[in-house]
Amino acid sequence: MRGLLLGMIASVLASATGAQGQQFPSAQGVGANDSGTGEFNRQQNFRDFAVSVTDTNRLTMRPVPAGPKDIMQGLEVHDAKGLVVGKIETVGKGFAVVSSAIGSVEVDFPSFAKNKNGLLINMPKSKLDVMMAHGHPAP
What we know:
Number of strands: 7
Helix content: 25-40%
Order of helices and strands: HHEEEEEEEH
Strand order of the largest sheet: 1-6-7-2-3-4-5
Strand content: 15-25%
Shape: rod-shaped
Radius of gyration: 31 Å
Oligomer: single chain
């Protein structure tokens, strides 16, 4: 009985060492168009990027242009770093008035962008504060 048990253990060990000696083909040729996994990842990344650009309802931190329907009275406006520069006081034809405690300034619609945090303007808060204090329209 012991001999039978030792024989079975020896055969299991022999088959395990034989399996270790075998080499499997590499997965390099597996992927889209058999061009490798790197090419597949590049294609998938491009597909994800195209979806994020075309689907503006799914906002991310990446700014996208804001349309006239996105610019409404009472919304906060952030600068490029995310600091609040003011709120939209009024909306006119093609422009909006952004006001803060310092003053107010007119901003054209093409100067606005949006991300998941809200409306953005690509200008530092310090520059916008100076413009508000002097009453100059923003570019």
